[in-house]
Amino acid sequence: MSTPQLQNILLVDPDHDYLDWATKHLDAESVKILRCDDADKAIKVVGKAEIDLVICDLKLTPFNGLELLDKIRASSPNTVVVLTAAFPTTGQIIESTQRGAHEVLRKEALAFELRGVVEAALQLVDQRRESSPNDDERQVAGKNAIIGISRPLQDVLKVVGRVAQSDAPVLVTGESGTGKELVAKSIHDYSPRRNNEILIINCGAIPDNLLESELFGHEKGSFTGAMARRAGRFEECHEGTLFLDEVGDLPPSVQVKLLRVLQDGSFSRVGSNEVLKTDVRIVTATNKDLAAEVTAGRFREDLYYRLNVVEITLPPLRHRQEDIPLLAEFFLDRIARRNNQGRYQLSHEAVQHLKDHRWPGNVRELENTMTRACALASNELLLPDDIPLGRAPTAAVGTMDDALKLITETCSRDGMNALSSSRKELINYALKQCDDDLSQAAELLGCSVKELKKETT
Ligand SMILES: Nc1ncnc2c1ncn2[C@@H]1O[C@H](COP(=O)(O)OP(=O)(O)OP(=O)(O)O)[C@@H](O)[C@H]1O
Ligand SMILES: [Mg+2]
């Protein structure tokens, strides 16, 4: 039996207390620990000794941890790198994963978490030794502001990082408002297609008889109203990403055509037999149970497997409580910037109040709740009473009258000075929050776009 090989770990951190702490907790017979406090020294050590694992801070001098990661990966591709940061941001996690970091660890992680990460990293070192040196998993990610530090969300970001580089179809699932569209955009933003377009089609919002032409185009005269030849989204989106939202709503005729494009990139416009080719990466989303739709015979099984090459499931907000305060602060910042006004602060009680809620409408509900709280609050420090929960409209379900009544009721119940409850002001307020995007404003008000249009014209 061969004796296990001694593994070399290099710790790089400007903080000597952290170096001492990590050394103490990682010290073991099977490892040798080396340490240094800047990136220049680290690169020299990696050049001389065979280092298996580098654990380095993102903030280093004379260049930062990401640059050190790049240099290590270029000069010593089998070395595994774990980055550390006090509070890693979403962007840092995605970018580090994309650039090949094995893990991004919070510096306040407990000793057992550090040891767990190191054990997993050293196992990877062993696997790499056994496999070919070119067998190198490229990891990637997306840069849309996806806020959150919870473990379930970090796991999602890592998958985003990995799949972004490939052209594999991705199915994003999760309850309404969990961030499926945001994830789809991130996949595009971090993919090699990022300089081309991402087109977003809500399959549920387009009448069945128009959807086929919308996606694949049509020839002049192919149906009543087809006055001229028109290119479809698959043609327009060549070399880009097409995000098909609510894919569970696709009618059977379109399901067949989509299957064909996924198989070999070919399709025909409505009313034509000419075979056209396109190179489109497909990301889909649904909050339906697509497997159940297959069982019920409403969704083609072959298409389901084609779309579901990688499935990313977004956890509901109630399963990632740690993210709630961060998201709430993020929305407060954004509202303050948009309105060019001072920023509201959350009291401890308000944070607890937010954490205690179940958030059936997930992040969208939280965003709308914070927007409403800022409209209604009279003091800069938000208390639980400033943040009405639960009865708020979170989706485009009711009428404009219902929505305004609800907001007005909430205001008077809570004795708040709600923009004087004037209909016009509330509508203008909602529009301003959403940069005049009618569908978002309608969602915020909880009415249909049609209703809102009537009010604004
Ligand atoms: N982690 C997050 N960080 C920041 N904003 C988020 C996050 N998740 C969701 N949001 C915001 O919440 C809102 C809802 O997200 P999104 O539209 O992506 O959800 P969805 O899952 O597609 O919802 P639906 O199923 O209703 O279409 C958006 O305004 C989005 O920007
Ligand atoms: Mg969506």
Tell me what you see in this structure.
This protein is globular. The chain folds into 3 domains: 124 residues, Rossmann fold; 163 residues, P-loop containing nucleotide triphosphate hydrolases (Rossmann fold); 140 residues, Helicase, Ruva Protein, domain 3. 45% of the residues lie in helices and 13% in strands. The chain has 19 helices and 14 strands. Strands 2-1-3-4-5 form a 5-stranded parallel beta sheet, sandwiched between helices. Strands 7-8-11-6-12 form a 5-stranded parallel beta sheet, covered by helices on one side. Strand 3, helix 3 and strand 4 form a beta-alpha-beta unit. The chain is an alpha/beta fold. It binds adenosine-5'-triphosphate and magnesium ion.
